[in-house]
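Subject: Sporulation integral membrane protein YtvI structure
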Amino acid sequence: MERLMLKRFGRGVWVLSSIFVIAYLIYVLLPLLYPFLLAWIIAYAMNPCVHLLQRSLKLPRWLAVTLSLLLYFGAALLILTAAVTRLVKELIILSQSFNLHIDTWMEWLTAWMQNDSFQNIINEISRFYQNNPNYHDTINQNITRTTQTIGTAVTDLVTSIFNGILQIIYYLPNLGTILIVVLLSTFFLSNSWERHNRALIRILPGVIRKPMIYIFSDLKKALFGFARAQLILISITALIVMLTLYALGVDSAFSIGLLIGLVDLLPYLGVGIVLIPWSLYAFMSGDLTLGIGLTVLYSIILIVRQIMEPKVLASSVGLDPLAALLGMFVGLKLFGILGLIVGPVSLVILDAFHRAHVFKDLRNYIIGGRFR
């Protein structure tokens, strides 16, 4: 009995050790191999187009892959160029509008500082300062400390902006190299797709071949489903913002809606970072219509996001809505904002392992020494 328990314990330790080694290898190798992983994803996405060109036009595989690459990357480049061009135009208009509003803001600030209530506060502070000479040093030290803190914060902000610009410039050549590697890898992978798949299947031991096919199939579905879900949610947010801003008569509604849609990649925080300060400014400047409109807009986006996110994620990734919501909540608590992605993806991986009977096979191996 003791010998049997020792064997089971040894097999359990072996399984856990193997899991940790695999996780460590993924952690170490992923930063080195991500261009090839990205190339594999693009090649997988291009396969329907490649097969269509081969069947309909009777093209050789290499020519169909080349045309598909040109089509996919050309379309992506065209869309990106059009979006950036439109965004730059809108930002130029927005900056011109901002310059026109500076005088209005200065007049509002001057009027607010000349307000009787504000002047009374200043007079009370001055009177307190004059009547309490014992507090002069403390007050002066606090003023100096506050000024230094503000100056340090501004300096850090400017430094971080310049460092970010320098990092972008520094990584541009590296980005070009990565793009070339991705393009070439995509071509070679797609051109020999079936051969690579057969070679990979032959490498896998027979006992794990079928489970791995199930797992890879579910992970591919989850990967593209998650990207589709995020694209749907961002598009919904951007469309709601654009239509609302157009209805409110706000200039540069397209660029603002697009930017807010991109910022919405940070759920629970992104939209509020833009709309809450904007609505507060609108109320303070006396534009009640805009302030109320932005407040209602923020509420609508928040409600739509909370309702749609679990459903869209569940339908796209293949999870039950309650399970998707649970995964998002647990991921948020454990990993922060990144957990909103890690949580559902982890559930998909665990579900794929369960459907492929991986846990059952590991249990059978630990107890009886065999996977089946």
